[in-house]
Amino acid sequence: MEVAPPNPDAARHVHFNNAGDSPSPPRVTDAVVAHLELEARVGGYRAAELASTEVDGVYASAARLIGAGRDDGDGSGKRDAREEVALVESATVGWTRAFYSALETKEREVLARTGRREAGAGAGDERELAILASEAEYAANLVAAVKFARDRDRGGSRVRWRVLPIPSAVVGTEGGERASTGAVDLDAFRSILGGTYADPSGGRILDPASVAMVCITHIPTNSGVVNPVNEIGEMIEEFNLRAAPRSRLPSIFYLVDACQSVGQIPVDVRAMKCHALAATGRKYLRGPRGTGFLYVRRRVADGLEPSHVDHAAAPVTRTVAERSPSSSTRGGLGYRPGAARFEFWEASVANRLGLGAAMDAALEFGIDAIGARCATLGGRLRERLREVEGARVHHDGSSACGIVSFVVDGLDAATVKERMQEGVREEVPDGAERPPCCYHLSVVPATSTPLDSGRTGLGERPLLRASLSYFNTEDEIESFCRALAMVQKKLLIRDT
C-alpha cells in the first residue's frame, strides 16, 4: 500500500510517522465525509439521531478492541460497552479526566477517613501520598502530575503529594557499563509494593500504603520499548486485594497511557488489570485527528467523582425554585453510570464514526497480525540502521515493536527530517530518471520523555523517529536507509 502524495506526478511518499499521524484508509474518510454531507442536508441534530445506532457500534468496537465489557467474575455479569468506554477528543483528554478524577476522589476519601478536612489539623498531621510514573512517561502526563502535587501544596491541602519515578531496568553493555533498557524494572516495582524500596530523593523507605496512583506509558513516544503492563497490573491487583479487599476504590489506581499501543499491538484491559486506559485515534488506529477513547473499569468508575462535568455527565433531573441553584442541589448531584460520566455533550459525530471505521478496519485485519507485522518491520529497520554509519538506535536491545528512534552522529535531527521529507532522488545505476521520494518521519524532543532522556545520557539531544505500520513494506525500509545514507553524506560534506 502506498500513501498518495499531494502531487502524485512529482514525488513518491513513504509514511514512517504512524506513531504521530497514520494515514486513514478510504473507509475512514468515507465515513467522516458521508456524515458531514448528511449534516449538510438535515442538520447536525437530526443527523446524530439518524446515526445513533452506528455511534453505538463505535463503543462496541472500542470495547472489543481492548477486551472491555466482559464479565469481571465479580457477579456483575457482562457489561454494555458504554459502561466502560467514553469517547473523547484525544488520549490526553481521556488520561487527564481519569487522572484528576481518581486523585481528587482519593484525596477526599483519605481526608474523610482520617477526619482531617480543610482545617483543624496541625502541619504534623499531614498525610503523604505518592504518584508513581514510569521513566518513559510522556511529558504531558508528568506535567499534569507535577502540577497536581504543586497546586495541592499551594492550596493548603492536608495531604502532601509527591511524584516519584519507577526505575527502569538496566543491563550490562559490551563496554562493561550499565545502560537503561527504558522499561520498568519489575524487581524494583515489586520492592516498592513490598515496602523495601528506598526513595532515592530522600533515602527513606517508601511506604507502599502511600502510593495512590501508578502511571505507566505502555509504549513510549521516544522508543520501541514495550512496558510490562500485565505484570505490573498483577502486582497492583494483589496489593489492592490485601490493602482494601472490599473497597470499590482501589488503594492504588492503575492508569495506562496506550496511545502508541492501541492499534499497533494486542491490548487486553482484563489481562492488564488496569483501572483506566487512554487511547487516541490518529496514531496506529489510523483514525481522524481529534478522536480517542477512555476505558474505566465499571466498578471503579461508579466510585469516581469526575473532576469536570457538564449536564451530559451529570444530568439535571429537576428544576430549581430558589434563586441559588447550589442551595437546592447541594448533595443531590448525580452522575451517569460507568465511563459515561467522563463524556461531555458536544462532540463531532462524523469524527466518532471515522474512529469506528478505523477500529473496525484494524479488527478485520486482525490485531495479532498487525502486531506481528509491525514488530517484524521494526526489527528489520533496526537491523538496517546498524549498517548506516553513524546511526545509533535508542534502546536498541529492548525495543520490540514498530517504533524505531535513533540519532545520526554529527547531524541535527530536524535537518535530517527536513531533507528526508523534502524528497530524496536515488542514484540509479542505469541512469534512468526516477522521481524523488519523500520520507515522512518525526523528531522527538528529549523533553517529550524527560526522565528517560536524562537517565540514558541523551541530554537535550532530540531523536529521529521512524514508526512503521502494517501497510509499510521491506522495500520502503531499504529505500529509506539508502536515502538516509545519501542525506548523511551530503550534509557531512556541506558542514566540512
Core attributes:
single chain, about 500 residues, alpha/beta, seven-stranded mixed sheet, four-stranded antiparallel sheet, 16 helices, 15 strands, globular, disordered N terminus
Fraction in helix: 25-40%
Low-confidence stretches: 1-10, 116-124
SS field, number of helical segments: 16
Shape: globular
Structure classification = alpha/beta
The Rg value, from CA coordinates, equals 25 Å
Biggest sheet overview: 7 strands, mixed
End-to-end Cα distance, whole Å, is 39 Å
Strand tally, please? Answer: 15
Strand coverage percent: 15-25%
Strand order of the largest sheet: 2-10-9-8-7-3-4
Average per-residue pLDDT, rounded, comes to 89
What does this structure look like?
It is a single chain. The chain has 16 helices and 15 strands. With 496 residues, the chain is an alpha/beta fold. A hairpin with a 5-residue loop joins strand 5 (168-172) and strand 6 (178-184). Helix 2 packs antiparallel against helix 12 (349-365), helix 4 (52-66) packs across helix 12 and helix 5 packs parallel to helix 6 (139-154). The two termini are 39 Å apart. Residues 1-10 and 116-124 have low confidence and may be disordered.
